[in-house]
Structures are given as structure tokens and as C-alpha cells.
Task: inverse folding
């Protein structure tokens, strides 16, 4: 029973994280300056992939209640989902945000 709780939490996290990532590209919340925005194309791809996998994981989990054929697939889907979340986290931390500096640095290094 505890496994199912974590299973469905992971699928919800993947689904909603993908939804947020896709929405942030088209309608940003404005919490970060434009200089640290995410690249639109990779963000759209990641968002679509995370939403798709999260929905698929939820469907496989729910199908296991009706058809016993899907019961052995739950641990594999959970493990793959955890791996996907780890890879997405690494991408988000190290590759997603690129800083684009606007303008030129001052010659006097900020001294007045």
C-alpha cells in the first residue's frame, strides 16, 4: 500500500512538473528576470515528455486495479519514472537556465 502512495505521488509530480514547464514557456509567471529564462524548445520537449510519462504511469497504476496483467509493470514504471525525474533534475540544475547578459560591463568596475 505504501508503494502505491509513492507510485501515484511520483506520477503526479511528473505530470504537474511537465505541465508547469510547458506553461512557463508560453506564459511565464514572471518570478525570474528574462535574462535567466529557459530555452523554449528543450523546455517544451521536456514538458511534453514529463506530462506524457506521468499520465502513462498513472494509467498503468490504475489499470493494475482492474487487470492483474499490469501489476508486475508497476515497479518497472516506478523505477523508470524515478530515473527520469533524476535526469530531469540534473538537466534543470545544470543545463536548463542560461544567463544572457544585456549591455556591456562598465570600464570602472562599478567604482564611483
Result:
Amino acid at each position: 500500500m505504501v508503494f502505491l502512495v509513492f507510485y501515484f505521488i511520483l506520477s503526479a509530480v511528473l505530470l504537474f512538473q511537465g505541465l508547469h514547464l510547458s506553461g512557463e514557456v508560453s506564459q511565464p509567471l514572471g518570478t525570474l528576470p528574462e535574462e535567466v529564462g529557459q530555452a523554449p524548445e528543450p523546455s517544451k520537449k521536456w514538458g511534453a515528455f514529463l506530462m506524457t510519462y506521468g499520465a502513462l504511469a498513472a494509467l498503468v497504476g490504475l489499470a493494475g486495479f482492474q487487470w492483474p496483467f499490469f501489476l508486475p509493470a508497476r515497479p518497472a514504471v516506478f523505477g523508470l519514472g524515478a530515473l527520469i525525474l533524476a535526469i530531469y533534475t540534473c538537466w534543470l540544475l545544470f543545463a536548463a537556465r542560461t544567463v544572457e547578459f544585456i549591455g556591456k560591463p562598465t570600464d570602472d568596475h562599478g567604482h564611483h
Summary: Residues 40-66 form the longest helix (27 residues). The mean pLDDT is 83. DSSP finds three helices and no strands in the chain. The radius of gyration is 19 Å.
